[in-house]
Task: inverse folding
């Protein structure tokens, strides 16, 4: 019998197998690397969040009275840069993905463990450059670095910042490369493509984008650096260059990048909905293919960020059409998740609350994307708070909520402890309320005409701004809460069995926390994904066994 | 000679899986390199379409002879690299080391010729920046753009060559120590893939940069 | 909407109503979809809540019909959105023929307007109600964006080229003007107002100010002062192409391509003459980059647009091969007579090391 039924409390696991700073900083265990990333991205999340709190405070009043204009410009720029490249892009792939991808496919590690560690170091090296830029006065170009402002006019630490992002891009590329090779070549016997958890499909699709899009960002950042340092003229109209060339190259990466940020979150949500409905995800193949379709179509729509730049009307029409096309697979996923709930056995654990919140908020975010894809309407709302609200609904209402749901869900697996459910539910509620209060008013503000990146605004926009800032303070509390109780639970939380929920998936078929090599023996898979079976049939390998039931 | 057990990494089940993973990994890496150079090729394409006259004229300032020699040098180095891979596959250590060394020599020759070209351009004031000067003032701006792209593209390529030569040197050392065998030669094979890729990038760079205006009957300005 | 808590800006242009209608349609679809999804979720999680510890979900795993249904129907709805949006966008990109033209220069951090009659305004734009107005937008430095929420119009202003935007105001009043593309320190201060007046009031305003002469007159003066007329003569004997009737025509270039002589073409030809060499002419024209400001280029463009109405395509008007050698250098700053108003200093973008104001 190959069933690796886990003992309730393993004596040796990946966390205690050896101690000391060297065993962590020189580890090649994907699980430890995941935790190293967890520390890094959490730091950057709170740094980026601090910048947000600062400028939301400024926006309480219509006048620019808290900080100077230039400071404000630096605050929103650094908020965006840090959140995008040092939090949203790496968070789910490098924390949850690194931890779970090998386990979910029955492997002992990723294909290239040393590249994995190298990617963490590269990430932090890039982060160090970024921090140096922050401490030496910051950068005020916006996270989008539009030329010629960034290449010729800004007086701030553009080159250092751009270098930091460039270096961290290699972490992205190595991660994507690692995932693709791992998923292709290291699946356990019997783990066919269509038995893979949807989390794996999402990370596979994400990895395609990581390896194909990030190099283009790298080159455009190099060109901006060259322009600033050597005045080569590539984006300078006075020297024959074209400022819009920058936008094309930038958005060719940055649009697929938003799918890097949301696809892994969708993968998490699939796992959560399945487990807490005790049901196979409705339309498994559709969801799997939709993930890949999003990745592919995501490369074809970058021009929708440039509808009002004076580009060809016909080009804009093509981009608008394709932008609607890319919305279809996302919609399919939302419908499939909802259908999964039908005749499920629904539990209200915190991860499920986050997953359900994701579906609602992502739906709103995605629907407002349709507003932006409509050409005639985009002319009015682009470059306003409408866009800001749209992407925060997806990034924060979507990705961050999915991440929090995933962290809670896999926390027992990662730490061997359970978090306090009462506090966790409270945190989820605070996050949901705070989030909506922060960002829903911004849709209205945007349609009324408040432009982005304004630190002083007409009086009539104040009420909505105050609502938004109030929401932001509530949201902040909602984020600090899990920090506190998750850390608390590492020491004082109750120990868990191998599979506390219980869930299907190979990661649950080994101890919590797992041993360094993940599985005592490589599992042989003979069952489909999300196959929940009744208690009587659990003698068959891979189904729920009595030992997996929660105590 | 290394045996199967000692070269199998702990997380792979067998050598076959390890080889497959390594090869797929290198191919994916090369795809990222295509996208990386692709950004520069895109910028080049756009500006060449906008300023065809200036680009053709500026291209005549490049030394086509040296460029052609370099092309031949690189193609030969791909041959010696392929022979090195073959040597490692059949366990012929002498052939492997000899061909690796030849590849290094040819790579270094390429870099030497490139450096000479750069020196010429510097002397002719064709390096973009404050010292740039151009014969035809009405084309000056766009010619400077051409040379910016020239240096960016060939410079990035040269950087990849330098890294490649470095890796080859490490391989020579490892081959000398008897690290490779018909059972385990993946590093040589994967380096070969990388080297061929760098060669192919040059095959595109050469005509796009050096051969633009020649058919129009302009004489080389070199 | 309720005046106490507005959700929409005022509708003050002919296109505003169409944009709002599209918005409302999308709003309704979104609200319906959101309520549907949220409603289903809430209903399902209550109705199917777990009642016993080891209860499982039912083995319902998929239905092709349902998948196709909820793929095709949303796609159709989205295609309606696409077509509707494209239709409004088409209207927005096609200014009417008889539109009143006003030239706009955006620079850090102000908007400068030049009316055809010569009125200049800064951060304030007076326009008549009920008349199509077309703005030709130029930037002196970085990318800006001209945004009037009440008109539902917005257009980026990109250095190195002209962009255009048009509107027809329907209600007299004063409306916000914002810069909508981040452009540096005082981006939020690059605001102003568009003042829409009744036609008679507008006429009064036009004749009231100290006009400095119409734009075309200013352009004509520049054309003389910069010695353009020495090569671009009224006959075909000049070293440069005839400009009478050029605007709007198709031009044959030396490389075989053709191009339409619009504002961008004229601007480029002044700043980068060899970029689009007209067939049959030599690359003799010097560049005026750094010698003319964006506003002056706009004046020259206005003047050239006003020249003649001849039908012929611009063809080879090459001077005879016997042209005497030793032509005087053209268009150099030294040639400008002392009586001409001083040209604005060449505007070069500050390098990263410069102090910013």
Result:
């Amino acid at each position: 019998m190959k069933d690796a039924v886990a003992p309730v409390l393993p004596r040796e696991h990946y966390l205690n197998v050896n101690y000391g700073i060297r065993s962590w900083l020189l580890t090649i265990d994907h699980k430890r690397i995941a935790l190293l990333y967890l520390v890094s991205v959490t730091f950057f999340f709170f740094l980026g969040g601090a910048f947000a709190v600062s400028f939301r405070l400024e926006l309480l009043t219509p006048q620019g009275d808290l900080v100077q204009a230039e400071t404000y410009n630096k605050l929103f720029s650094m908020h965006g840069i840090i959140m995008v490249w040092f939090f949203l892009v790496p968070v789910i792939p490098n924390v949850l993905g690194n931890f779970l991808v090998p386990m979910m496919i029955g492997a002992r590690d990723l294909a290239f463990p040393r590249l994995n560690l190298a990617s963490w170091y590269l990430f932090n090296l890039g982060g160090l450059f970024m921090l140096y830029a922050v401490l030496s006065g910051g950068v005020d170009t916006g996270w989008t670095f539009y030329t010629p402002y960034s290449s010729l006019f800004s007086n701030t630490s553009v080159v250092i910042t751009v270098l930091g992002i460039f270096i961290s891009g290699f972490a992205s590329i190595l991660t994507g490369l690692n995932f693709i090779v791992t998923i292709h070549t290291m699946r356990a016997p019997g783990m066919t493509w269509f038995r893979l958890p949807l989390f794996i499909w999402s990370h596979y699709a994400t990895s395609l984008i990581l390896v194909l899009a990030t190099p283009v960002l790298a080159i455009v950042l190099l060109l901006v650096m060259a322009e600033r340092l050597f005045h080569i003229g590539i984006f300078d109209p006075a020297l024959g260059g074209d400022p819009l060339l920058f936008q094309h190259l930038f958005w060719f990466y940055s649009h697929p990048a938003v799918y890097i940020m949301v696809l892994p979150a969708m993968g998490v949500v699939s796992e959560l909905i399945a487990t807490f409905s005790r049901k196979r995800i409705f339309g498994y193949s559709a969801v799997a293919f939709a993930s890949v379709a999003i990745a592919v179509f995501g490369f074809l729509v970058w021009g929708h960020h440039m509808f009002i730049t004076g580009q060809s009307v016909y080009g804009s029409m093509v981009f608008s059409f394709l932008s609607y096309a890319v919305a279809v697979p996302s919609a399919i996923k939302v419908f499939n998740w909802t259908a999964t709930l039908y005749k499920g056995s629904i539990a209200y654990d915190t991860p499920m609350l986050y997953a359900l919140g994701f579906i609602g908020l992502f739906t709103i975010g995605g629907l407002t994307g349709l507003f932006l894809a409509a050409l005639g309407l985009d002319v009015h709302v682009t470059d306003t708070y409408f866009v800001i609200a749209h992407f925060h609904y997806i990034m924060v209402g979507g990705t961050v909520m999915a991440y929090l749901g995933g962290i809670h869900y896999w926390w027992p697996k990662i730490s061997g402890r359970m978090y306090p459910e009462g506090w966790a539910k409270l945190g989820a509620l605070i996050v949901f309320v705070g989030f909506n209060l922060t960002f829903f008013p911004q849709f209205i503000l945007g349609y009324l005409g408040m432009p982005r990146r304004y630190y002083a605004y007409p009086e009539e926009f104040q009420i909505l701004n105050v609502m938004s800032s109030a929401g932001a303070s509530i949201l902040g509390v909602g984020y600090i809460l899990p920090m506190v109780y998750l850390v608390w639970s590492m020491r004082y939380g109750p120990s868990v069995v191998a599979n506390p929920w219980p869930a299907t998936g190979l990661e649950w078929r080994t101890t919590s926390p797992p041993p360094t090599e993940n599985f005592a023996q490589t599992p042989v898979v003979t069952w489909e994904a999300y196959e929940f079976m009744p208690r009587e049939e659990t003698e068959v390998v891979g189904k729920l066994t009595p030992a997996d039931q929660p105590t | 000679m290394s045996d199967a057990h000692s070269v199998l990494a702990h997380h792979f089940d067998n050598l076959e899986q390890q080889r497959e993973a390594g090869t797929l990994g290198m191919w994916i890496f090369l795809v990222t390199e295509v996208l990386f150079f692709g950004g520069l090729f895109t910028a080049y394409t756009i500006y060449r379409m906008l300023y065809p006259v200036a680009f053709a004229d500026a291209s005549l300032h490049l030394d086509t002879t040296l460029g052609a020699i370099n092309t031949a040098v690189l193609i030969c180095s791909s041959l010696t690299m392929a022979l090195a891979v073959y040597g490692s596959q059949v366990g012929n250590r002498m052939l492997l080391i000899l061909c690796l060394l030849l590849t290094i020599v040819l790579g270094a020759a390429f870099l030497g010729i490139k450096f000479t070209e750069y020196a010429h351009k510097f002397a002719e004031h064709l390096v973009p920046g404050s010292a740039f000067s151009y014969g035809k003032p009405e084309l000056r701006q766009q010619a400077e753009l051409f040379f910016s792209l020239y240096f960016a593209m060939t410079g990035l390529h040269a950087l990849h060559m330098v890294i490649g030569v470095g890796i080859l040197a490490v391989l020579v050392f490892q081959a000398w120590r008897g690290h490779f065998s018909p059972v385990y030669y993946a590093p040589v094979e994967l380096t070969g893939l990388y080297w061929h890729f760098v060669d192919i990038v040059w095959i595109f760079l050469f005509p796009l940069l050096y051969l633009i205006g020649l058919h129009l009957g302009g004489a080389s300005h070199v | 909407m309720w005046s106490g808590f507005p959700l929409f800006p005022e509708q003050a242009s002919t296109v505003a109503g169409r944009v709002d209608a599209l918005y409302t349609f999308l709003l309704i679809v979104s609200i319906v979809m959101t309520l549907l999804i949220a409603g289903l979720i809430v209903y399902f999680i209550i109705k199917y809540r777990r009642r016993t510890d080891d209860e499982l979900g039912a083995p319902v795993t998929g239905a092709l019909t349902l998948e196709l249904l909820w793929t095709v129907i949303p796609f159709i709805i989205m295609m309606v959105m696409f077509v509707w949006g494209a239709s409004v966008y088409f209207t927005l990109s096609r200014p009417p023929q008889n539109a009143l033209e006003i030239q706009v220069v955006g620079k850090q951090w102000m908007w400068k307007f030049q009316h055809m009659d010569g009125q200049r305004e800064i951060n304030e734009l007076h326009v008549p109600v009920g008349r199509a107005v077309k703005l030709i937008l130029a930037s002196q430095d970085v990318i800006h964006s001209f945004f009037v929420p009440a008109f539902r119009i917005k257009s980026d202003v990109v250095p190195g080229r002209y962009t255009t935007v048009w509107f027809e105001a329907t209600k007299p009043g004063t409306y916000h003007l914002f810069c909508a593309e981040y452009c540096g320190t005082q981006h939020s201060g690059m605001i102003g107002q568009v003042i829409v007046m009744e036609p008679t009031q507008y006429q009064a305003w036009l004749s009231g100010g100290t006009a400095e002469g119409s734009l075309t007159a200013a352009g004509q003066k520049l054309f003389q002062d910069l010695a353009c007329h020495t090569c671009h003569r009224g006959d075909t004997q000049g070293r440069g192409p005839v400009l009478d009737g050029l605007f709007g025509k198709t031009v044959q270039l030396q490389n075989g391509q053709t191009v339409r002589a619009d504002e961008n073409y004229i601007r480029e030809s002044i700043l980068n003459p060899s970029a689009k060499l007209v067939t049959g002419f030599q690359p003799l024209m010097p560049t005026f980059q750094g010698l003319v400001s964006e506003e002056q280029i706009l004046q020259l463009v206005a003047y050239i647009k006003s020249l003649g109405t001849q039908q012929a395509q611009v063809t080879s008007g090459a001077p005879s091969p016997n042209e005497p050698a030793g032509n005087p250098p053209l268009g150099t700053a030294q040639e400008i007579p002392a009586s001409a108003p001083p040209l604005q200093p060449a505007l070069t973008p500050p390098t990263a090391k410069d102090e910013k104001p």
